[in-house]
Specification:
Blueprint lengths: L1 H61 L1 H18 L8 E2 H19 L3 E7 L7 E2 L5 H12 L6 E10 L2 E8 L6 H9 L8 H13 L6 E4 L5 E8 L8
Parallel strand pairs: 2-4
Antiparallel strand pairs: 1-3, 4-5, 5-7, 6-7
Helix pairs in contact: 1-2, 1-6, 2-3, 3-4, 4-6
């Protein structure tokens, strides 16, 4: 009986030690993931602001009225977005509003050359997503997809109900890109400064797991389609 009691006691102590080690490991992983997301958000904000101010500067000499309209739109966008730093998630409807406001800013610069289309399932509007997730995608669609295209170009925003998941798509009919270059960006092996799609992919994977990363379909001259799926009933915070 004494030997059995001693064995049980030591097994219990070993189990407790193992449980504490697992808890410390999970706490370390969560802390690392939070630090990664904070760094990604910090990387995104100045990048967007620089590009927006550069657009205003480009219009100041050629079209002062358009520059003034863009400043007003930009002020509204920043007023709405600057308070997002402390929030882990926002409703998809709010995120779409920010993306559409950004596109409205770009429409001032591009005029009739830029069209925007949306197809949003109403029951996805309350879905929680990380803030400013779509902004780098619509920015890339305009600056890299449509800016070099002759004539009219279209950016399409889509949010579809896929049962247990929702699919979010940002698509353009612009000049497209080199698929190998896109793969290198998503793999983290591309040289040069940080890239918006790499930022989005990293944030999605950090919050929802590797199965919910960004999918980019593109080819030279064939436009670009960026999509991701997120579980509708998964926890959307890091706690």
């Amino acid at each position: 009986f004494y030997l059995i009691s001693a064995v049980v006691h030591y097994l219990f102590l070993a189990f407790e030690a193992s449980h504490r080690a697992e808890t410390r490991l999970l706490e370390t992983e969560v802390a690392a993931r939070e630090a990664e997301l904070r760094a990604l958000r910090a990387q995104l904000d100045p990048h967007f602001l620089f590009n927006s101010l550069n657009s205003v500067s480009a219009l100041t000499g050629s079209d002062p009225q358009a520059a003034r309209r863009m400043c007003l739109l930009l002020a509204g966008f920043l007023r709405k977005s600057l308070g997002l730093g402390a929030r882990e998630t926002i409703p998809l409807g709010e995120e779409l509003y920010l993306a559409e406001t950004f596109l409205a800013i770009e429409q001032v610069r591009f005029g009739v050359r830029l069209r925007v289309e949306t197809d949003i399932a109403e029951d996805t509007l309350s879905l929680a997503v990380p803030p400013l997730l779509l902004q780098p995608l619509v920015e890339n669609a305009v600056r890299h997809g449509l800016a070099a295209k002759e004539g009219i170009g279209t950016v399409t925003l889509t949010a579809s109900d896929r049962g247990a998941e929702a699919e979010i798509v940002v698509e353009d009919d612009g000049v497209g890109a080199d698929p190998d270059r896109i793969r290198a960006i998503l793999d983290g092996t591309a040289e040069g400064e940080s890239h918006g799609i790499g930022n989005v992919d990293s944030r999605l994977r950090a919050v929802y797991g590797d199965d919910c990363g960004l999918v980019v379909e593109t080819a030279p001259g064939a436009g670009t389609r960026c999509s991701f799926r997120i579980p509708k009933f998964a926890p959307h915070t890091l706690s």
